[in-house]
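User: Hey, my collaborator sent me this sequence without any context and asked if I could get a structure. I don't really work with proteins. Can you help?
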Amino acid sequence: ATTLGTPYCFGDGSGTPCPCGNVGGAGEGCANTTNSGAVCSALGTTSVASDDAVFTGTNMLPNQPGVLFFADNATNNGDGIVFGDGLRCAGGNLVRRGVQTPNAMGIATWGPGLLAGTSVSAGDLKRWQIWYRDPAGGGACSNAFNLSNGLEMTFTP
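Assistant: No problem. I've predicted the 3D structure and written it out in structure-token form, which is a compact way to encode the shape of the chain:
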């Protein structure tokens, strides 16, 4: 499978500062109560017809739900805005694609079939991200939720 998209909007100090100094590692979202930041990645193709992309969230909290979503815009020019214990990287016409619960290793997957029922067409650029619960001690800033990095991709026929 081919790695999809371009990661952006990291909580590693390269853009908007994380809300409580909870800096994640390189390429991650802001750190959660495991001291790591969640990572959103995808494999498959960007073909709308195939609709075979599979998204994975890693470094999330085991057994705590996460929501994969996509939107039209990269917030704050791609650096994200503070939201909960992390950075919201995607906004504008937000579409949720389901809730998954990470396994004991903090890994969850979504897909394939994530474009069904949406208006995504070939040529569309979408920004993806995972919003997840981090209730252990209330999360880094006591907001009880955090977000992964962003992942942007342009869809093909």
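In plain terms: The CA atoms of residues 21 and 86 lie 10 Å apart. You can pass these tokens on to your collaborator as they are.
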